[in-house]
Design a protein that fits this description.
Elements: E1 8-12, E2 17-24, E3 30-32, E4 44-45, E5 49-58, E6 67-69, E7 72-75, E8 81-87, E9 92-96, E10 102-104, H1 105-108, E11 113-117, H2 123-128
Antiparallel strand pairs: 1-2, 1-5, 2-3, 3-4, 5-6, 7-8, 7-11, 8-9, 9-10
């Protein structure tokens, strides 16, 4: 059985940038591990950030497509805009549409087009309402 790759990214409110290649401590705090870090100083904490997880899916470009992340704003094949969210109760990623409809990410995600993120491009959601 193939396991999906577990990785995270974080939106840092202070620097207004997306940070990739991070881990999550048991307390839920994102950290980055610099390549040249010593064991004692390997954690570079981002206290003012929003963490997001990789869904394990890539978009319509197939194997070489863009990774689909929690917090992405995407457009489905019908031209409808949705946000990738994680539902804790169902332990699954979904496409959440402004109309209030939720759809399995397996159904709406792989054929979708990346538009931005909820932190970098919130105006895309406002235009979709």
């Amino acid at each position: 059985m193939r396991m999906r790759e577990i990785k995270f990214r974080a939106w840092d409110e202070n620097s207004q940038e997306m940070i990739y290649e991070i881990g999550i401590t048991p307390e839920g705090i994102p950290y980055s591990i610099p390549d040249n870090a010593e064991a004692s100083d390997q954690f570079n904490y981002y206290p003012s950030c929003h963490k997001m997880q990789y869904t394990g899916l890539k978009d319509k470009n197939g194997q070489h497509g863009q990774e689909i992340w929690e917090g992405d704003i995407r457009k489905d094949v019908f031209g409808r805009i949705f946000v990738v969210v994680y539902d804790n109760d169902l332990a699954a990623f979904y496409g959440e549409y402004p109309s209030g409809i939720d759809q399995s990410l397996a159904d709406c995600g792989p054929d979708s087009e990346y538009l931005g993120t909820v932190y970098e491009n919130p105006e895309l959601l406002e235009a979709a309402e």
